[in-house]
């Protein structure tokens, strides 16, 4: 009996190891056969009842065997890729059980893999970076800084640049502008986002009709969702759940913020504003305490509506922002909480307690309505006027699409995008429809990053931050390694290095 | 001072010469010193101790240890840690006698109590214990003060250093100590048994030092009888881990320790020897141990050469030890070892190395391989192993002599082709010399080798042995306190007294003394085996032509033979019977008189009785003897 490996096309009528591209360990003499009729003394003989294991190491292209759980040492080196496990039987009546892992192996293969994983990781950790006079550190700092700037974390970027003696290439005002636009997009307030972009970067969207189209399609979707400003001012109330921007699972895709972060930042902000209300709210659970609305009222309401704490938190935080950023307060309540809170509190410090007081009642009212509407999400927030506006907007979009086709030729991407968006109207409950995922706030991210990149390009800045580029590069490399059969990529993933 | 001496051995020496140590110790012990000052003093002393061995000696001369131990009674943790750090450095130095830790009986319990204070006290105290625990006495002291319970939970500490030092503690505590080992197997830490924790620590992604030390713990527990040799944690975890430690990828130090530990683990168990012999080509892997310093290292890198040279001896002796264990029982493994590239040459070369350690290991290895009849006849002969062996036997330290002479016993077996040349090179003198050694093991081996030598030997050799040994020495050996020596001496006598001409010749010259000795032993308080052997000697004497008369004229001896014929033990009855049988054999001259004399003594009656014996052997012998009377 011979146990081993063969490439495709090797003669199946002979024991593995005897022919070219075939390798085997034979039980009768314990020899190993490396594509040759003559064997080399390798290990013990094996017979009925023995468990023989064969392990191919795709990192160093070697193979070793095990007998009853004991490693017999390396049998073959420099193995070619694409080998198949092979068992050759010579004696009539021989029987073999094959185990490809469906049962636990006798040999501790997990332990062997642990060793190799450690080896590969050590290799990565010790990779020589050819550091000359802090070059490496400077480069890392630049990557961090450019990432912060790219996503508009201006206060952090500023602080980071200051402490690492770097200059920020982009002007602070410009970063803030981009940040503002991004916030609007991520809040689903596309109309305002488009308007602001046109104000700040007058020719940008003219020169990028496809981008404008993408933005408009998104605006249409947000109208359906009830989040776009144009439908909201028509009395539509958005379901809270649609509005609260979830934590992004992709850490580098947008400046989203986790609820726990929001909580901290918010507490800081409220501390600056007026701390007088703090004590009265200790009955409320954690983040809620800084809500400056009428305590008892709010409290009972929250309880009855089962709102969770992070949500409340974000609401509160958004309120502190709106004061600075926007003049029309009535619609801004629940929207801005994913912006970079640190920037606002530390660098701008614009908290204005007195002006906020006016909106406290409204805050609570908003909450109330949101709670009830959460139970039944309605098209465009349920307002007839809003629906009409949405239909009208849809027609404009159709016209724009046709115009685009005339001017720039057919564009399947645009066509599909529009078709998908319009499909939302075919369902009574678009959120639970097969095309409902378009309404997911996470879909705002690609739109947001496309717009951000376009703006950056007009300033001759990179479309993507170098950090994201490096990550993409590393991920691609690992994929390429896998396709090329370089085994060590199995023990190295980019995620392992992102904490 | 602290900043001046850090990393600067010269400055350290200067300060010591200038008398800084007594002053620092004074400040450290002064009641009025602030804790900050005391702590700084301990830190500077610790830094001085980090220097050369001479520095440590100077510190010891100033009685630093009692002062620091006194400091441990302080309530200030920082100060305690500084004292412990300094103590750790001093106790880990090879110039410090570890006994100093045990002179004051209150120290160990206090250290045990300090184990709970911080991760630093844990690290330093465990390190002190693992360096100062030498031999069963120390193990017992530490064990009785609760070392196992106090240290066990440190194995799960968050600090790697603490885990590592705790592990080292257990390896020294368990070594050759059944009491500690038996306790360890049942200790639970966080719901897990200690052996399981050790097994986790030898996983392949753990640091090598940790894998190696936990493998040692499990090995020692196994050798002390606390873990069975067929337990999975030995067969599938410890053994493979130790084999991996022997691989080329490991550092030279790790390879030495790995091989030595593995040799110890598998020494008494043939199944473990078989598994190790097929694991990862271990036997071939060990051949690499002889390739240091390599020719490459000599040319390319002087530092590497130095490093290789330093470890070359250690590597060779470790490999020999492991080969010795591997080949202890299994003939196939021995064959595999000898067939490894140039192995016999290497071992033979090892016999004449300057390092005692290497020579000893090489002799052990050869001794293990010499248990093979086939190898004795082939490889041992081809490589003239006896030559360097005879050389080793001249003026070697006892530990080498014990193994080498034991191997000589094997080489002197009658079928060994080395027997002749060994005799010619003066082995008789040498072996007779060994029988006078203080060391019982050497006496046994000496007399054993002589016994083997005398087996079916020619008259000349026998005469040589007797002359060289002298009857005085022979009698001394017959009254040796060591039973083994007595048995082998009787064996020698029996081998000397075989074939009729030899018997007569020897009895004619030494008859009187031999008869005296035989009487003495038969009268003495000895076990069955000794008496049987002695009766066999008498039977041999009775087989002689003239020698017979020495028995027939000795009524005392005849009475004794008669007594043993009626003994309750069959073996003794048989031996006495052979004796009688030889005396009454009627084809020989004077058989009639002998028969008559023995009949008068009542022997025939006994023979009749014995011919009815349920023991067929005895019954047959009695019948044969009676027939002699009938003829």
TrEMBL record, chain A:
SMART domains hit by this protein: CRA, CTLH, LisH, SPRY
Gene3D superfamilies: 2.60.120.920
Domain CTLH: 174-231
Record-linked Pfam families: CTLH, LisH, SPRY
InterPro entries, alphabetized: B30.2/SPRY, B30.2/SPRY_sf, ConA-like_dom_sf, CRA_dom, CTLH/CRA, CTLH_C, LisH, SPRY_dom
Residue stretches of biased makeup (Low complexity): 244-260
Ranges where the B30.2/SPRY domain occurs: 1-105
SUPFAM superfamilies (alphabetical): Concanavalin A-like lectins/glucanases
Ranges where the record places region Disordered: 232-260
Family from the record: Belongs to the RANBP9/10 family.
Protein name, entry field: Ran-binding protein 9
Gene: RANBP9
TrEMBL record, chain B:
Matches recorded under Gene3D superfamilies: Leucine-rich Repeat Variant
Placement of ARM repeats on the sequence: 19-55
Pfam families the record matches: Arm
GO cellular component: cytoplasm; GID complex; nucleus
Compartment(s): Cytoplasm; Nucleus
Keywords: Cytoplasm, Nucleus, Repeat
Gene Ontology biological process terms, A to Z: proteasome-mediated ubiquitin-dependent protein catabolic process
Subunit structure: Identified in the CTLH complex that contains GID4, RANBP9 and/or RANBP10, MKLN1, MAEA, RMND5A (or alternatively its paralog RMND5B), GID8, ARMC8, WDR26 and YPEL5. Within this complex, MAEA, RMND5A (or alternatively its paralog RMND5B), GID8, WDR26, and RANBP9 and/or RANBP10 form the catalytic core, while GID4, MKLN1, ARMC8 and YPEL5 have ancillary roles.
General function of this protein: Component of the CTLH E3 ubiquitin-protein ligase complex that selectively accepts ubiquitin from UBE2H and mediates ubiquitination and subsequent proteasomal degradation of the transcription factor HBP1.
Protein name per the record: Armadillo repeat-containing protein 8
Gene name for this UniProt entry: ARMC8
């Amino acid at each position: 009996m011979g146990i081993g490996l063969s490439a495709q096309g090797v003669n199946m009528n002979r024991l593995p190891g005897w022919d070219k591209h075939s390798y085997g360990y034979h039980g009768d003499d314990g020899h190993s056969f490396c594509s040759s009729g003559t064997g080399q003394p390798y290990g013990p003989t094996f017979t009925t009842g023995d468990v023989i294991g064969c392990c191919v190491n795709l990192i160093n292209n070697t193979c070793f065997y095990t007998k009853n759980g004991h490693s017999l040492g390396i049998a073959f080196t420099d193995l070619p890729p694409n080998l198949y496990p092979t068992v050759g039987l010579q004696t009539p009546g021989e029987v073999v059980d094959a185990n490809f892992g469906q049962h636990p192996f006798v040999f501790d293969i997990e332990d062997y893999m642990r060793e190799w994983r450690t080896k590969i990781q050590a290799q990565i950790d010790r990779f020589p970076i050819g550091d000359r006079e802090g070059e490496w550190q400077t480069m890392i700092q630049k990557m961090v800084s450019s990432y912060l700037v790219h996503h508009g974390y201006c206060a952090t970027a500023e602080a980071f640049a200051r402490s690492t003696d770097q200059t920020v290439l982009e002007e602070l005002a410009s970063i803030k502008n981009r940040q503002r636009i991004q916030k609007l997009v991520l809040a689903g307030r596309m109309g305002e986002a488009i308007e602001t972009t046109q104000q700040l970067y007058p020719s940008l969207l003219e020169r990028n009709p496809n981008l404008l189209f993408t933005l408009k399609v998104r605006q249409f979707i947000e109208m359906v969702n009830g989040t776009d400003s144009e439908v909201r001012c028509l009395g539509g109330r958005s379901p809270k759940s649609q509005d609260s921007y979830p934590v992004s699972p992709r850490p580098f895709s947008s400046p989203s913020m986790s609820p726990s972060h929001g909580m901290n930042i918010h507490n800081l902000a409220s501390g600056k504003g007026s701390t007088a209300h703090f004590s009265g709210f200790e009955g409320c659970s954690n983040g809620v305490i800084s809500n400056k609305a009428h305590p008892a009222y709010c409290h009972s309401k929250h309880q009855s509506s089962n709102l969770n704490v992070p949500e409340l938190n974000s609401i509160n935080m958004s309120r502190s922002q709106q004061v600075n950023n926007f003049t029309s307060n009535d619609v801004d309540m629940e929207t801005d909480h994913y912006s970079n809170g640190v920037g606002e509190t530390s660098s701008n410090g614009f908290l204005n307690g007195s002006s906020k007081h006016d909106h406290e009642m409204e805050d609570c009212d908003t909450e109330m309505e949101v709670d009830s509407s959460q139970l039944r999400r309605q098209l465009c927030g349920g307002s007839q006027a809003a629906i009409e506006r949405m239909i009208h907007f849809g027609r404009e979009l159709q016209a724009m699409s046709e115009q685009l086709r005339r001017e720039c030729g057919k564009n399947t991407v645009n066509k599909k995008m529009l078709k998908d968006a319009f499909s939302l109207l075919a369902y009574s409950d678009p959120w639970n429809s097969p095309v409902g995922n378009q309404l997911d706030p996470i879909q705002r991210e690609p739109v947001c990053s496309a717009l951000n990149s376009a703006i950056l390009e007009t300033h001759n800045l990179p479309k993507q931050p170098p950090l994201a580029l490096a990550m993409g590069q590393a991920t691609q490399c690992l994929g390429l390694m896998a396709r090329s059969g370089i085994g060590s990529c199995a023990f190295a993933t980019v995620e392992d290095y992102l904490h | 001072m602290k900043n001046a001496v850090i990393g600067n051995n010269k400055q350290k020496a200067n300060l010591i010469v200038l008398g800084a140590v007594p002053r620092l110790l004074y400040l450290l012990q002064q009641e009025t010193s602030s804790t900050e000052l005391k702590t700084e003093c301990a830190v500077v002393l610790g830094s001085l101790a980090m220097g050369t061995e001479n520095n440590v000696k100077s510190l010891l001369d100033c009685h630093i240890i009692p002062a620091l131990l006194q400091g441990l009674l302080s309530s200030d943790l920082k100060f305690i840690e500084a004292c412990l750090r300094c103590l750790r450095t001093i106790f880990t130095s090879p110039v410090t006698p570890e006994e100093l830790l045990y002179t004051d009986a209150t120290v160990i319990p206090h250290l045990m109590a300090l184990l709970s204070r911080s991760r630093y006290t844990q690290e330093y105290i465990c390190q002190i214990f693992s360096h100062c625990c030498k031999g069963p006495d120390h193990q017992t002291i530490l064990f009785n003060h609760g070392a196992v319970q106090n240290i066990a939970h440190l194995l799960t500490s968050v600090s790697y250093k603490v885990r590592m030092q705790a592990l080292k503690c257990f390896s020294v505590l368990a070594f050759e100590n059944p009491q500690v080992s038996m306790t360890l197997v049942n200790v639970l830490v966080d719901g897990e048994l200690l052996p399981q924790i050790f097994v986790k620590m030898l996983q392949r992604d753990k640091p090598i030092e940790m894998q190696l030390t936990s493998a040692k713990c499990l090995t020692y527990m196994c050798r002390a009888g606390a873990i069975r040799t067929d337990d999975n944690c030995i067969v599938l975890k410890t053994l493979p881990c130790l084999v991996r430690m022997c691989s080329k990828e490991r550092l030279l130090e790790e390879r030495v320790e790995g091989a030595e530990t593995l040799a110890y683990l598998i020494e008494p168990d043939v199944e473990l020897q078989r598994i190790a012999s097929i694991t990862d080509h271990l036997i071939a892997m060990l051949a690499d141990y002889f390739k240091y310093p390599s020719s490459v290292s000599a040319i390319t890198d002087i530092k590497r050469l130095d490093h290789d040279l330093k470890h070359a001896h250690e590597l060779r002796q470790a490999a020999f030890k492991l080969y010795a264990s591997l080949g202890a029982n299994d003939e196939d493994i021995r064959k595999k070892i000898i067939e490894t590239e140039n192995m016999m040459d290497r071992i033979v070369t090892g016999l004449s190395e300057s390092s005692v350690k290497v020579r000893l290991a090489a002799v052990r290895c050869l001794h293990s391989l010499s248990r093979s009849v086939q190898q004795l006849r082939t490889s041992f002969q081809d490589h003239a192993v006896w030559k360097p062996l005879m050389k080793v036997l001249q003026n070697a330290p006892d530990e080498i002599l014990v193994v080498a002479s034991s191997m000589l016993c094997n080489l002197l077996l009658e079928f060994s082709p080395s027997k002749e040349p060994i005799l010619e090179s003066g082995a008789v003198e040498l072996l007779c010399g060994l029988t006078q050694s203080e060391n019982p093991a050497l006496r046994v081996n000496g007399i054993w080798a002589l016994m083997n030598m005398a087996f079916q030997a020619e008259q000349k050799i026998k005469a040589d042995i007797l002359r060289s040994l002298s009857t005085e020495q022979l009698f001394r050996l017959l009254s040796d306190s060591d039973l083994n020596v007595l048995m082998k001496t009787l064996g020698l006598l029996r081998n000397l007294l075989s074939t009729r001409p030899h018997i007569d010749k020897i009895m004619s010259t030494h008859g009187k003394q031999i008869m005296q000795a035989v009487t003495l032993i038969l009268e003495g308080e000895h076990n069955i085996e000794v008496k049987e052997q002695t009766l066999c000697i008498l039977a041999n004497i009775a087989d002689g032509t003239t020698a017979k008369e020495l028995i027939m004229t000795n009524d005392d001896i005849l009475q004794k033979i008669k007594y043993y014929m009626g003994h309750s033990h069959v073996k003794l009855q048989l031996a006495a019977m052979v004796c009688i049988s030889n005396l009454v054999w009627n084809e020989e001259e004077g058989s009639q008189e002998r028969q008559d004399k023995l009949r008068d003594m009542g022997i025939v009656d006994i023979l009749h009785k014995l011919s009815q014996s349920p023991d067929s052997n005895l019954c047959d012998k009695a019948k044969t003897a009676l027939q002699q009377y009938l003829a």
